[in-house]
Amino acid sequence: MDAPAVRVKRRVVRAVTVYRYDIFALTAMALLIGLTLNPLLSSGQVVFSDLAFGFSSNRYLEEIFGVWNERWSTSTLLNIARLVYILPSWLLSRAFGGSGAVLLSSFIFLLIWMSALSMYLFTKRIVSVYYSKKFDFYKVVALVTGAIFYALNPWVIIRIQHIYLLCGYSLFPLVLMFFFNAFDPKFEAQLVRGFRPTRVLPYRRNVLDLFLLALVFTISAAAIHYFFYGIIFLLVLDALVLGKNAAAQWRINRRLVGNLVRNNLAKIGVFGVFFALLSSYWLFAYVASILTHAQASQHNINVVDTLSLFSRNSSLANVAFMISYWWPMFDLATLPVSFWVGGGLLLAFMAYAVVFESRRRAIVV
Q1: Rounded to two decimals, what is the model's pTM?
Q2: 68 — phi, psi (to 5°)?
Q3: CB 151, CB 115: distance < 8 Å
Q4: Cβ pair 297, 74 in contact under 8 A
Q5: How far is residue 51's CA from residue 33's CA, in Å, rounded to a whole number?
Q6: pLDDT digits (tens, 9 = 90+) for 109-145
Q7: Closest CA relative to residue 208, chosen from 264, 269, 270, 120
Q8: Cα 157 from Cα 111, distance rounded (Å)
Q9: 197-205 long-range CB contacts below 8 Å, 24 or more apart?
Q10: Whole-angstrom Cα distance, residue 242 to residue 302?
Q11: Cα dist. 203→184, 262, 263 in Å?
């Protein structure tokens, strides 16, 4: 065996050794999700409201970027970002004669698997920051369990018909991971050598994470629901993180609190530039359609419907009980007492962990 081949073999063996737990996690998640979705992966055509477009995989793509399609409507500009998401499934379908069934089945599998993968990466990042950077088999199994629960959450599976909304759901843990990498000093300290939280200008690593945040958020926020509520959520989360860090810095040196604010504003500006560049192709057209009272695509109807439902059905009680603003997926009046008792105990346990255990491990301040 020649020297280059030996070096390649050693690199492969080293990589498998270093990432053996991640390889196990990705394989286990794929197998468990495949077993759960076994009926979907069998022969036959899967049809539901959002993607009932026919037997050809090309027909699905026409709904995304075709200037005109068989419905005589304008192209769905908001879904162009999903080309990145659906491209692997479309290429696979081409190997089966452009089968729409293959595209849709593989797309749903990829969607659920990506949900598990993104949650696995996010929770692994949290564990490495707040607990330990060393991982063993048992920690990875715990992370896989949480990732599978997130991906196969019954509330999500029931809404599989709104598959483009689930694209945003599947990537949201990655959005949070890149957000904390860029805005939370605890995450930054692990990524930036010689990190100083009071530095005004963002680090190069911050710029990279902000670009990745904008890229992933662009793909997930192409469903207009995730754009509005994602931005609102990230702004609220940013205010909480900034407030926590400002309070800690005030006790150390109150003169440097202003540096934290300026650094935060600089990062928001960098993210805004990246997001505008990545999303301008649909965001500007969407804003212009509102200003000119035109309907660039059918998604304007979705936006109005979403905002009206949110304002009509959202309340303090719904927020407290984490009830969807859309419509009740379950008849709450028929749920047994055990549901409310068990949910109450779970929330109480979570509150205890947040107030006491997290503070002991320096998560709060």
Answers
A1: 0.78
A2: -130, 145
A3: yes
A4: yes
A5: 21
A6: 888 999 999 999 999 999 998 888 888 888 889 899 9
A7: 270
A8: 11
A9: 197/245, 197/249, 197/260, 198/249, 198/256, 198/259, 198/260, 198/263, 199/259, 199/263, 200/259, 200/262, 200/263, 200/266, 201/263, 201/266, 202/263, 202/266, 202/267, 202/270, 205/181
A10: 33
A11: 13, 13, 10
Which amino acid, 184?
A: D
Measured CA to CA in angstroms, residue 49 lies from 253, 272, 288, 297 at distances of: 58, 34, 29, 17
DSSP state of 298: T
| Both structure tokens of 203 | 């680090």
Residue 31, SS3 per DSSP: helix
Q: Are 316 and 107 in contact (CB under 8 A)?
A: no
360 Ramachandran zone, left/alpha/beta (phi>0; psi -120 to 50): alpha
Cα–Cα distance measured from residue 160 to residue 167, given in angstroms and rounded to the nearest whole number:
10
How far apart CA 315 and CA 121 sit, in angstroms, is 33
| CB 73, CB 297: distance < 8 Å | yes
| Strand, helix or coil for residue 38 | helix
Q: Of the candidates 206, 198, 201, which has an alpha carbon nearest to the alpha carbon of residue 178? A: 206
Angle at alpha carbon of residue 127, lines to 274 and 358, rounded to 5°: 105
Alpha-carbon distance of 181 to 196, in angstroms, equals 14
Query: DSSP 3-state assignment of 54?
Result: coil
pLDDT tens column, 267-305: 999 999 998 888 777 677 667 766 776 655 544 445 555
Taken as a whole, the chain contains a residue count of 365
Quick one: tokens of 157?
Answer: 């599976």
pLDDT in tens, 335-354: 788 888 888 888 888 888 77
The tokens describing 315, both together, are 């309340």
